[in-house]
Design goal:
two-stranded antiparallel ribbon, 2 strands, elongated
Amino acid sequence: MFVMGNLLIAIAKILDILFTVYTWIIIAQAVVSWVRPDPYNPIVRFLNAVTEPVLRPVRRYLPVRWGGFDFSPLVVLLAIIFLQEFLIKSLIQLGYRL
């Protein structure tokens, strides 16, 4: 049974790393959006391609745009922090119990 526990712990750690990387990508996209970037720049295109599928539903369902500021990255970052604190830690604790 310890193999299953180690597998859950490994999956939790990989998910934690992926969430952390995605957090930095969202932060980079938010910082880049403050200036007028070249839309044909490969970095800008990558940031938009990776973040828009997550930010678009938040923008559609929540009125998170006040005074010209887009708060959807903040909402997504809070959701990622929640998942890291709840899901990842729960998976690790479950893995140690197995």
